[in-house]
Design goal:
By secondary structure, the protein is of the alpha/beta class. Helix content is about 50%, strand content about 10%. It has 2 domains: about 140 residues, HAD superfamily/HAD-like (Rossmann fold, 3-Layer(aba) Sandwich), CATH 3.40.50; about 70 residues. The protein has a 6-stranded parallel β-sheet, sandwiched between helices. Helix 9 links the parallel strand 5 and strand 6. It holds the Pfam family HAD_2.
C-alpha cells in the first residue's frame, strides 16, 4: 500500500506547461531559433535552470546567449500568468482528500522556490503540503533522482512507499530512479515506450487518479 504522495507542479497541478510553451516559442522566434525548437522544449520539461542552460549550450553552442533567452522567456511567462494562473481539474479535490486522511504530501518541482511558493500562495494550496522541494534546492534536476529522494526524506517515507505524480518523461525517470512508484498524467506529450515501461499507473486526469486512491493509499 502507498503511504505518501509527491506531486510535480507544472503540468500536474497548474496548466502552466502550456504557458511556458507559448513563452519559449515567443522567445525562440525573437532569437531566430524557432526551427526545430519543439524537441528542445520537450527535452527541457522538468529540468531546473542550470541543467537547461547546459542543454541549450550543448545544442546551440557555447556562445549562445542563454541568459537573454531565459530572461526574455521568463518575462513573457510572468506577463501571461499575471493574467491567469490556470489550475488542472481536480487539484483541490485530491489534495483535500489526502489532507483529510493525514497522508503525507510533498511537492517536487524543478521551478525556483520563489515561483513555487508564489503559485501556491496565490491559489491557497500552501497548507496542503508537508514539504516543498524546488529546483534551486538541488544540484541535479530531473531526470536525476535527487529532487525525489530529498522529497521522500522530507516526509519521512521510504521511496518504495510513495507515488510520484508527474506529467513528463524527465519527471517519470527521476521518480523511478529514486525508487518510487511513478504515476503519469500526460500534459504536453504522451509517454513513449521507454517511459511507459517505467510507470506504476497512468491516468487521464487528477480526478481519475482520485477515483483510484482509496484502493492505493494505506490510511
Amino acid at each position: 500500500m502507498i503511504k505518501a504522495v509527491v506531486f510535480d507542479m507544472d503540468g500536474v497541478l497548474f496548466d502552466t506547461e502550456r504557458i511556458s510553451r507559448e513563452a519559449w516559442f515567443y522567445t525562440a522566434r525573437q532569437m531566430g531559433i524557432e526551427a526545430q525548437f519543439e524537441p528542445v522544449f520537450l527535452r527541457a520539461i522538468g529540468m531546473n535552470r542550470s541543467d537547461t542552460r547546459e542543454m541549450f549550450l550543448s545544442i546551440y553552442g557555447a556562445d549562445f546567449p542563454y541568459e537573454t533567452f531565459q530572461t526574455t522567456s521568463s518575462q513573457k511567462f510572468h506577463e501571461l500568468i499575471k493574467q491567469e494562473l490556470p489550475m488542472k481539474p481536480g487539484v483541490y479535490e485530491i489534495l483535500s482528500w489526502l489532507c483529510a486522511r493525514k497522508v503525507p504530501t510533498a511537492l517536487a518541482s524543478s521551478t525556483s522556490k520563489k515561483s513555487v511558493l508564489s503559485h501556491l500562495s496565490r491559489t491557497n494550496l500552501t497548507d496542503f503540503f508537508n514539504d516543498v522541494i524546488t529546483g534551486d534546492m538541488v544540484v541535479h534536476s530531473k531526470p536525476h533522482p535527487e529532487i525525489y529522494e530529498m522529497a521522500c526524506r522530507a516526509i519521512h517515507t521510504a521511496p518504495a512507499d510513495c507515488i510520484a505524480v508527474e506529467d513528463s518523461k524527465n519527471g517519470i525517470r527521476s521518480a523511478f530512479a529514486a525508487g518510487m512508484k511513478p504515476i503519469m498524467i500526460p500534459d504536453q506529450v504522451q509517454p513513449d515506450d521507454e517511459t511507459a515501461a517505467l510507470l506504476f499507473k497512468k491516468y487521464d486526469s487528477l480526478l481519475c487518479l482520485l477515483d483510484d486512491l482509496p484502493a492505493l493509499i494505506d490510511c
